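Please study the protein below:
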Amino acid sequence: MSTRSTNARWLVRAVFGLRRLDRCEEGAISLLSVFAVLLLTMLLGMVMNVGRHVDGKIRLQNAADAVAYSGSAVLARGLNTLAFTNHLLSDVFAMTAFLREARDRNAERYVPAILAAWDGIGPVFRRSGFPKFERLGAAIVRKTPLEQQLVQTYGDWAAAASERILPLFEEILAAEMIPEYQRAVVRTFPDIAQLAAAEVARRDGDPNRGRGLMYGVLWRTSDPDAVPMPVGGPAEQLGPTLPVVDPVFEALAGDSRYLARARSRRDALADAYLRDWNNQTMYIFDREAKMCQFGNLWRAFTCGQLQRLLTVEYPNANLPHLLRVDQADLDLDDAGVTTSHLARNFTFLGVAYWRRVPEMLPGLFRNPMENDAVAYAEARVFIPRLRLEWLSDAPGGGSSHMPIGGVPGDFPDIPSDTPPSPPTPNPEIRYYVGRQTHRFSSQWDLFNQNWTVQLVPATQPCLAQILQTPPPLPTFAREGYRLPRLGPLRPEDMGTISTH
C-alpha cells in the first residue's frame, strides 16, 4: 500500500472523528466526580468545624457555670462553718459555766437548810387538826429526805462529769481554739474554692481534642476601680475574700465598732444555750422536787459562773466572727442587705479559659480571632428568704418558735418536689398566702447556717476588666493563654455582646 493512500485514509478517519467529537460523553462522570468530592470535602470540613466550635462553646460555658457555682459553694460552706463555730463557741461558754457549778456545788450547800425548814413546818401541819393539812405534813416529812438524796445524787453525777470534761472546755477557752480555727477557715477556704474552680474546669475540658488544659478561675468583684484579684492566693493578705471580720483583730487595728456587737451576740447566745441546758437537766427538780429549790439555786449559780466567764475572764477574747458591713451599708433593706453590699462582698465571677479550636482544613478555614476562648458566669452567696405557703387564721395555727439560725441537731424539714395543694375550703377559717414563719431563719448574719449559692446574670461593672486581666496564678502563666482585648467596655456593652 502506497504512502499516498495511507495518508488519505488517515485524513478521512480524522474528519469523521472530528464530526463525532461533539457527541462523545466518555470521561464526563470522572470529571464531575472530582469536583463533587472536592465540594463534599469542603462541606464536611465546614460542618466539622462548626460542630467542634459549637461543642467547644457549650462545654466552655458549662465549665464557667461550674467554676462560678462550685467555687462560690465552697465559700458558702465556709460561712456556714463560721456560723456553726460561732454557735459552738457560745455553747462552750455555757457548758463551762454549767460544769464549774457542778465542780463547786454551790447550790447544793443551801439545800439542807431549806429542807430543814420544811422539816420544821411539817409537824406544824400535822398538828393543825385539819385532815388535809395533817396528810400534807406527813408527806413533807417523808419527802424531804428523798429530795436531799436526789440533790446529793445529782451533785455526785455532775461533779464526776465535771472532773472529766471541764479541763477540756477550759483549755479550749484559754487557748482560744475556736477563734483560731475560725481564722484558719477565713484563710484557707478561698484557696479551697480556687482549687475547686480549677478542678471542675479541668474535668469539663477532658477530652481536650487538641486544645490543651481548660483552666477555671474564681474572681472577686469587691472593688470595680481596683485591679481585679482572684479568690485566694496573695490577695488574701490584702483583705479576706469571705466578707467577715475578726472583732479582736479589728479592735487591735483601731476599729472597735464590731467589738460591742460581737460581745452582745456571744453573751445572748451563751445565755440561751445555758438556759436550754438548765431546762433539760433541772426537769426533775422543776416538777418532782420543788421543795428544795435546787433548780432555782442551780440556775442562779450557773448564770453567775457564765457572767464571770463573759465579763471578767474573757471580755475581749473568744469573740465570734461577724459579717463585714461598711458604714454605708448599715441601713439594710428588708432582705437584710443592700444591693451594693451584695455586689461587693457576696458576688463572684467564674471564668473558664481554653485554647482556640484547631481548625480542620486550616488552609481553607481560618479563625479571625487572635485570642483564646473565654467564658464567664456570675454566682452569689446569700441567705434564702422564707418561701410562700398557705397560712390560716385558725386558733392555734401560729407558732411562737423563734429559730436562732440552725443550732447543732436542729435540721429543718426538706421541702417536697411536689407543689403543695390548696387546703380544703372551710367557711370558718380564712386561708391566705404568706411567707413561712418557723421553718428556718432568714436573718442575714454569721449565726445563720443557711448560706447557699445561686447563679445570677453577669452584670458586674468590672466584668470586661476581669476578662482581659491575666490572673496571677502559676498554672495560668505556664499555660500561656491569650486573653481578649476588650478595652473600657461598659456593662451594658458586655450585655450586648453576650446575653449570659
